[in-house]
Each structure stands twice: as C-alpha cells, then as structure tokens.
C-alpha cells in the first residue's frame, strides 16, 4: 500500500473540497485519506492510478500533480 | 418593481455562485437578475424581503448586505 499526495490548484472553499472528494471517489483502486483546500492524499493498493486521478480532477476544473 | 444589490462575503468560486443562486431561488417574492462572486442583484415586486434573503444566504455560510 502506498500513500500519494497531490497538490491541487483551483480549490478555494468547502464546495471545492466536496467536489474533489466526489471526483476521487470515482477513481477505482484508491482510498481517500484526506482532502483539504489545495491538496489531497490517497492510499493505493495496486499500481498508482495517477493519470486517472489527474483526469478526474481535471474534469472538475482542478489541476493536480503528485507531490510525493 | 425595485432592484436590490447585495454585497456577499465568502464567495470564492463557481460552486459558491451556484449555492448563492440556489439560496436566492428559495426566497419568495424575488427574481434573480445576476449572481457573481461577491454580489447578487435581484428584482422585487412587493416589499423587499431583505431579511429573508440575508437569512437564506447566511444558512449557506455567506454574509450579505444591501449595497443599493
């Protein structure tokens, strides 16, 4: 199990936190550990679905990158 | 018919615009003219329901005041 933290641009309020959480919930193979304004941390079991996570967040209007 | 513009604190993104619009839609006696980040303009027919508007926005977490 690996922990992945994303830096996320464009989040500004609690609605954004909820939108990011919903987007992450749509990605298979991860468990959400934490979502805050500007970042999210997930746990992965298999290969980290980084591109799927970035695509799901991009669809909601947020630009994300892995920070660790 | 009167036009009322509110200054609204706490709005930061498109989700907030949507939340404010939904809150205003719940107030009887007004028609929404415009909602932007930081302000909203409504048209009223009868007596202006200023307190109802402020209460509806407050429930969503936004502090509003009439500016004109």
Give an overview of the whole structure.
2 copies of one chain form a homodimer. Chain A is α+β, with helices and mostly antiparallel strands. Helix content of chain A is 32%, strand content 37%. The first copy, chain A, has 2 helices and 4 strands, in the order βαββαβ. Chain A has helices at 14-25, 50-59, and strands at 2-9, 30-36, 39-44, 63-66. Chain A has a 4-stranded antiparallel sheet, with helices on one face. Chains A and B meet through helix 1 of A and helix 1 of B.
Produce the secondary structure layout.
The structure is a homodimer of 68-residue chains.
Chain A: E1 2-9, H1 14-25, E2 30-36, E3 39-44, H2 50-59, E4 63-66
Antiparallel strand pairs in A: 1-3, 1-4, 2-3
Main sheet: strands, sense, barrel of chain A:
4 strands, antiparallel
> pLDDT below 50 for ≥5 consecutive residues: which ranges of chain A?
none
DSSP strand count of chain A: 4
Oligomer: homodimer
The most extensive interface, with participating residues per chain, is: A-B, 9 and 9 residues
* Overall pLDDT metric of chain A: 95
**Any idea what the shape of chain A is?**
globular
Order of helices and strands of chain A: EHEEHE
How are strands sequenced across the largest beta sheet of chain A?
A: 2-3-1-4
N-end to C-end Cα span of chain A: 14 Å
β-sheet strand percentage of chain A: 35-45%
Alpha-beta classification of chain A: alpha+beta
Based on CA atoms alone, the radius of gyration of chain A comes out at 10 Å
């Amino acid at each position: 199990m690996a922990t992945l933290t994303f830096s996320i641009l464009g989040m500004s309020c609690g609605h954004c936190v909820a939108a990011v959480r919903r987007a992450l919930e749509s990605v298979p193979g991860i468990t959400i550990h934490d979502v805050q304004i500007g970042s999210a941390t997930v746990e992965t079991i298999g290969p980290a679905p980084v591109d799927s996570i970035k695509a799901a967040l991009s669809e909601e209007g947020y630009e994300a990158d892995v920070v660790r």
